[in-house]
Design goal:
The chain is of the alpha/beta class and about 350 residues long. The protein has a single domain, classed as 3-Layer(aba) Sandwich (Rossmann fold), CATH 3.40.50. The protein is about 45% helix and about 15% strand. The strands form three sheets. A seven-stranded parallel sheet has the order 3-2-1-4-5-6-10, sandwiched between helices. α4 packs parallel to α6.
Length: about 350
């Protein structure tokens, strides 16, 4: 079996769902259930013995050590992270504690476990650390895309904390021999995305008749990766990736934020027209730009295609249409996570401190 941390979050839950759709190998799901962790993402697995949920933090050394000893996993996939740039600007401490200190405690527990393994179990064990392209900083309009050897230049508390976690993972490989793999992905989108990020926020606000806020001039460029493509890349890296290597995972879809919003509005106009007949783009408003807002990210995903044979299955056009349709078909999920009802459920089932 494997342990997946942060597996009730957006990418982690998609990974678990896809994993169990293709394999009978069990998953231990370790998640602290912070505001963006949502067990409703995994409701279809209720009663499935292949999915074992454990509420807890990667920073809890004793808990992680206990899980490792009890379940003897062959691999750990680490999605657990605080990941929202705006929140990191207003409250960076949580990001330092989870992304840096938490990763350190996780690595320490893994080192103790791995060092006691014998033979084939030790040789085949893997720790896959999931990171972000934001560690590389910002690109100019005509700069080449980020490769795995690009210098780290993080510009927000979030990206700095993820850069630090990447360095720790690298250090534990080179110092202790821990068999690690690292992936750095571009902006993900798709089902179960908590509606504070651009794409789910725009869909949610559009349907609610609210404004669609655009930072600055809306020309910040991101590379967009459909979440299920990201999950397939992680499975591939875990399967055949070279120990100690980093693999950039991108969608080859550079888009300015404003273009993304216009695309979302056009799809909504087609699939769910406004009652008054007006286009959704009429709801667009411009707001003051975010502090330290990086202008452009772009991933060069040539290495993972060349070495591991992976490339995304979805174009932006196909992936974004699937995403909009998912949100239209799953409005109760959106209403629950935005209304606070989910938090009340967590408090009831796991205690007021959950």
């Amino acid at each position: 079996m494997i342990i997946v941390t942060g597996a009730a979050g957006f990418i982690g839950s998609n990974f678990v769902l896809d994993w169990l759709a293709q394999s009978d190998e069990a998953v231990i799901n370790l998640d602290a259930l912070t505001y963006a962790g949502n067990l409703e993402n995994l409701a279809s697995l209720q009663g499935d013995p292949r999915h074992i949920f454990v509420k807890g933090s990667i920073g809890d050394f004793d808990l992680v050590a206990k899980l490792l000893a009890e379940y003897q996993p062959r691999a750990i996939v680490n999605f657990a992270a605080e990941s929202h740039v705006d929140r990191s600007i207003h409250g960076p401490e949580d990001f330092i504690q989870t992304n840096i200190v938490g990763t350190f405690h996780l690595l320490e527990a893994l080192r103790a476990y791995w060092s006691k393994l014998d033979g084939a179990a030790k040789d085949s064990f893997r720790f896959l650390h999931v990171s972000t392209d934001e560690v590389y900083g910002s690109l100019g309009k005509d700069d080449p895309a980020f490769t795995e050897t690009h210098r780290y230049e993080p510009n927000s508390p979030y990206s700095a904390s993820k850069a630090a976690s990447d360095h720790l993972v690298r250090a534990y490989h080179h110092t202790y021999g821990l068999p690690v793999l690292t992936t750095n992905c571009s902006n993900n989108y798709g089902p179960y995305h908590f509606p504070e990020k651009l794409i789910p926020l725009v869909i949610s606000n559009a349907l609610a008749g609210k404004s669609l806020p655009i930072y600055g001039d809306g020309q910040q460029i991101r590379d967009w990766l459909y979440v299920k493509d990201h999950c397939s890349a992680i499975r591939r890296v875990l399967e055949v990736g070279r120990v100690g290597e980093t693999y950039n995972v991108g969608g080859w879809n550079e888009k300015p934020n404003l273009d993304v919003v216009h695309t979302l509005c056009a799809i909504l106009d087609e699939l769910n027209p406004r009652p008054d007949g007006q286009p959704y783009k009429a709801q667009i408003t411009y707001v003051t730009d975010r502090l330290g807002h990086d202008r452009r990210y772009a991933i060069d995903a040539s290495k993972i295609e060349r070495e591991l044979g992976w490339k995304p299955a979805e174009t932006f056009e196909t992936g974004i249409r699937k995403t909009v349709q998912w949100y239209l078909d799953n409005q109760p999920w959106v209403e629950n996570v935005t209304s606070g009802a989910y938090r009340q459920w967590i408090d009831k089932n796991y205690g007021a401190n959950a």
